[in-house]
Each structure stands twice: as C-alpha cells, then as structure tokens.
Amino acid sequence: MLQHAISDGEFASFRRFIFDMAGITMSDSKKALVSGRLAKRLQHHGLPSYEAYFRMLQSGQHPDEVQQAVDLLTTNETYFFREGRHFELLREAAEAARPGLRAGAPFRVWSAACSSGEEPYSIAMVLADALGDAPWEVTASDISTRVLQRARLGHYPMERASHVPQDYLRRFCLKGIREQAGTLLVNRALRQRVQFRQVNLNTDLPSDLGAFDVIFLRNVMIYFNGDTKRQVVARVTSRLKTGGSFFIGHSESLHEINDSLQTVMPSVYRK
Question: By C-alpha distance, which of 117, 198, 115 is closest to 154?
Fold first, then answer.
C-alpha cells in the first residue's frame, strides 16, 4: 500500500534517473506527472514508497522494470501531419530526388523520435504518393519500447487523424466499424514500409542505421538541456546526407546549438 505522495527528494532521484537514461531534463512542474505515471508500478510490486521503487531500479536486477520506467517517463502524445508545412517540403524533396532513385539507393527518411507512430506513417503516406514505384524507406525510432509496440500496430483514435488529407485516409487507412468504430488502422502495405526500432539518441547510434535524405527530430529538444541538445543534434545530423533536410519542432531552434547546418526557414535546416 502506497503510504505517501512523492517527496522532493524522491522526485530528485527520478529526475536524475531519466536524465542519466535518456538525457531528458525534467522541470519542477513534472512532479505530478512522475508521481502519477509511476504510482501503478509501485502498486504492482507492492512497494510502500517511491524511494523503494527507485532502489529497485538501481539494484541492477530488474532491467525490464528499468525499461518500463523509462517508457512511462518519456511518452509524448502526437498526431498525424503535425506541423503540415514540413510534409509539403518533404514532398518537394522526394520529387526532386525521384529521377536519381534506383534499387540500392532509395530515398531514406528517419523519424528520430517517433513516439506512437503518427509521424512516420504521415511520412510514409507522402512518400508513397510522391514516389510511387521509385524506391524509398522510412526508419522510425524511439527510446520507449511501449510506444514502439503501439506504433507497429498502426491503430489509432480517429481524432488523431483530423489533419490527414481525405485522399490519404481513403488510400492508406481502414475505418473501424462496430466495436472498432471511432478508430482507424493504417493499412498493412503501408505499415510494412516503416521499420521501427529502439534507439536512444543520448548514446552512440547503431552502426547499421545508415544515412538519410531527410531527418525529423521534432518536439524532442524541449526535454534536453543545452549540452544534451548539442550532443544529440551532432549525433543525429551526422547521419544526414549532404544537401539533406533536417526538421525540428516549430517551438525549437538550433541557435547556439549547431552551426554546420544552413537555416532554410524557422524549424527547417539543410546540410
């Protein structure tokens, strides 16, 4: 039985935990979020306090529980075709590259913090429409195994799709009926074109990730401090091809973070 609310000291421990694991800096305002998201794990294990749960994570004997805690503390809600101008620019880049695409040299896009999958599926819809039979690939990654499991299913509440063009809804999504009413399922053909994998942007990137024509790293840097932003952006953009496009969130900036990219417009950069 949980005996007390999370204390300032316990909250400080979890702030340090998520910074060490994911590079995420949590403000004081996240105390209720941490308390609320972890309470069920304390209940599940019959632990009396957040301190006891923290000690469990630190013991080194419960790697699955550590991943569970990371998943709970990093989940970020999103929706299809968020910040629509980026998808117009993606289409332009794909169409410009189309004449030179061939087997073995596809147009490659990385959704580097894909959350529950709406962003990479939006990317895939644009590429399927713009490139047709020309080769293309979408890689989608996140630190959270839980959101990646959801993303692979491609099953969403219909309200997440309010920005999806009607033509794309008809071509690439199935509308739920009966007990699935109010939901949509991304069709199997499109789901199979997106490769989901777990990647922690705060550590060395997998060597087999390859290079990309376009990278989306949107609405992630708001969780990082200045040093972590610089390290993550340098790491991620090292996988961007020369001439490639880099998209960040509209509320974000690379000012004083990276000077190797050219600004195309706010939130859009070119290598």
Answer: 117
Question: What pTM did the predictor assign?
Answer: 0.84
List alpha helices for 46-186, DSSP H. Answer: 50-58, 63-74, 85-97, 118-131, 145-153, 166-172
**CATH assignment of the domain containing 253:** 3.40.50.150
Quick one: 114 and 70 in the same domain? no
Which is nearest to 205 in space by CA: 106, 67, 112?
112
Element of type H or E holding 67: helix 63-74
103, part of any domain: yes
Q: Which domain holds residue 141?
A: 85-270
Q: Both tokens of residue 238?
A: 């090292």
Last residue of a domain, one of 74, 107, 128: 74
Is the same domain home to 52 and 135?
Answer: no
Total domains, the chain: 2
Residues designated as active site: 37, 142
Answer whether 138's CB lies under 8 Å from 94's CB: no
d(Cα 204, Cα 239) in Å, to the nearest integer?
12
Which amino acid is residue 66, in one-letter code? V
Q: Are 46 and 123 in a shared domain?
A: no
Tokens representing 135 are 């080769």
In this structure, what token pair is assigned to residue 234? 């340098």
Tokens of 106: 């596809």
* pLDDT tens over the chain, length 271 residues: 455 689 999 999 999 998 888 788 888 988 988 998 899 899 999 999 999 999 999 998 998 899 889 888 876 668 899 999 999 999 999 999 999 988 789 999 999 999 999 999 999 999 999 998 899 999 999 999 989 999 999 999 999 899 999 999 999 999 999 999 999 999 999 999 999 999 999 999 999 999 999 999 998 888 888 899 999 999 999 999 999 999 999 989 898 888 889 999 999 999 9
- Beta carbons within 10 angstroms of residue 90's beta carbon: 22
